[in-house]
Amino acid sequence: MKKKFKFGLASQIFLGLILGIAVGAIWFGNPNVETYLQPIGDIFLRLIKMIVIPIVVASLIVGIAGTGDSKKVGTLGVKTIAYFEIVTTFAIIIGLFLANIFQPGQGVDIESAQKTDIGQYVETSEEEGQKSVAETFLHIVPTNLFKSLAEGDMLAIIFFTVFFALGISKLGERGKPVIAFFDATAQAMFNVVNMIMKFAPFGVFALIGVTVSKFGFDSLMSLGKLILLVYAALIFFLIVVLGIIAKIANVNIFRMLAYLKDELLLAYSTSSSETVLPRIMKKMEEIGCPKSIVSFVIPIGYTFNLDGSVLYQSIAALFLAQVYGIDLTIWHQITLVLVLMVTSKGMAAVPGTSFVVLLATLGSIGVPAEGLAFIAGVDRIMDMARTVVNLVGNALAAVVMSHWQGQFDGKKANEIMKRKPAPLDVN
């Protein structure tokens, strides 16, 4: 008897992706596409943003309050930040190495490409660029929790939540009803995710349709070398660098990619890793990562561990230097590494992160910031790929930290990932 094909949510999202590309290509350059479709895509992204903070806060409280060990939390925090810094540095160096070898900006005529207004990012860049390293880390400590919640400042929210969870753990029996409340809150929010995900195919269709209609396929030609190099670099980092790290943690990177394929498709389509944050956290728990580690490492990784983004930023910075004929010495490039290491952390939560970081970085190596208008029109197509790498990097970070803490069985995890992955529903 033939197995009946089930047109599940992942298939619906893929269909939305294909239809969006078709609509954008057919009506390329038509402003009505953006007028009618952009609100649909924005609604989906807003729905996701609406539930991210409640899920992170509730899960983090349940995970940490359940362990009740402040020393463990402190050790985990130090190890997590150290791991993020090491991997991020590798990503930047790989980006610079490949950009130096392949020279994507050589022979490119900057006047021939589509120019895009980047004024919306300049003010944010100037604002953030004036912050010192000390101020960047000082910003993590919130002065007003409700202001941080309203602004979606994830690092400040996590900082408060960790202390609040440790406070609950000190209550003993009296704290159990509070833990039960937040556990129920987390489960309720996962049910809300299920409802929101039914809208995902429409969100993907709208976002992809708008993207393709704005830049089309012809406009990729003048920047084709940059796009190809960024994709090749991201694939190399994903398979080789993260593959080696996964091997050390006794996990097969290809099995992990297959296990997360539905989430990766959705993240790629929407250029937003937030869309799958709840599901990624759930899946990492399913393969054996402790809840206390998952709920701590992954949300922090969303602002501190952006491997795909910094790899792209290092390539883009050298690309623009090559376009302008600016010869960067080894010391300029070391400066670029150091600046990116700081700016990519300090501005992770601001809108248009990659452009803001690049604007704040280019000045340090003498590259005109106006050059960003040259690549702004096709940034979205590269953003899709770097979002996937960011996502896999953070999922793997939860595995690495669990392994490092001696709380992960790689053999068992591989067996779970070999089975048919659960559908996109989170129940």
Automatic annotation (TrEMBL):
<keyword id="KW-1003">Cell membrane</keyword>
<feature type="transmembrane region" description="Helical">
    <location>
        <begin position="199"/>
        <end position="217"/>
    </location>
</feature>
<dbReference type="InterPro" id="IPR001991">
    <property type="entry name" value="Na-dicarboxylate_symporter"/>
</dbReference>
<protein>
    <submittedName>
        <fullName>Proton glutamate symport protein</fullName>
    </submittedName>
</protein>
<feature type="transmembrane region" description="Helical">
    <location>
        <begin position="223"/>
        <end position="246"/>
    </location>
</feature>
<feature type="transmembrane region" description="Helical">
    <location>
        <begin position="48"/>
        <end position="68"/>
    </location>
</feature>
<dbReference type="InterPro" id="IPR036458">
    <property type="entry name" value="Na:dicarbo_symporter_sf"/>
</dbReference>
<keyword id="KW-1133">Transmembrane helix</keyword>
<feature type="transmembrane region" description="Helical">
    <location>
        <begin position="355"/>
        <end position="378"/>
    </location>
</feature>
<feature type="transmembrane region" description="Helical">
    <location>
        <begin position="80"/>
        <end position="102"/>
    </location>
</feature>
<feature type="transmembrane region" description="Helical">
    <location>
        <begin position="154"/>
        <end position="172"/>
    </location>
</feature>
<dbReference type="InterPro" id="IPR018107">
    <property type="entry name" value="Na-dicarboxylate_symporter_CS"/>
</dbReference>
<keyword id="KW-0472">Membrane</keyword>
<dbReference type="Pfam" id="PF00375">
    <property type="entry name" value="SDF"/>
</dbReference>
<keyword id="KW-0812">Transmembrane</keyword>
<keyword id="KW-0769">Symport</keyword>
<feature type="transmembrane region" description="Helical">
    <location>
        <begin position="7"/>
        <end position="28"/>
    </location>
</feature>
<keyword id="KW-0813">Transport</keyword>
<feature type="transmembrane region" description="Helical">
    <location>
        <begin position="310"/>
        <end position="343"/>
    </location>
</feature>
